[in-house]
Write a structure and sequence with these properties.
The chain has a 4-stranded antiparallel β-sheet, with helices on one face. It is of the alpha+beta class. Helix 1 packs antiparallel against helix 2. About 10% of the residues are buried. It is built from 2 helices and 4 strands. It is globular, with a radius of gyration of 12 Å.
């Protein structure tokens, strides 16, 4: 299996919606959120079978970050078969 990395530049107001969509895709292994200067704000791994109760604290943190940043980059690491 190989790893593929993608980057999405996004406004803070759309951050939570984009992260939820990425998690729903199911093939995302790690999500990193960077500020507009390129410094990592938060990084979290996603394992196979992540469910609501486990992901809820992550989404709460992403929501808090979204309230603080105007512009950021989401770096997504996917595992390809």
């Amino acid at each position: 299996m190989t790893k593929k990395t993608e980057e999405f530049k996004i406004n803070g107001e759309d951050l939570l919606k984009k992260v939820k969509a990425l998690i729903a895709e199911g093939n995302v292994r790690r999500i990193t959120i960077r500020n507009k200067e390129g410094k990592n704000i938060v990084e979290f791994p996603l394992t196979v079978g992540v469910v609501g109760a486990i992901i809820a604290p992550v989404l709460a943190a992403v929501g808090a970050i979204a309230a603080l940043v105007t512009e950021c980059t989401i770096v997504v690491e996917r595992e390809e078969k």
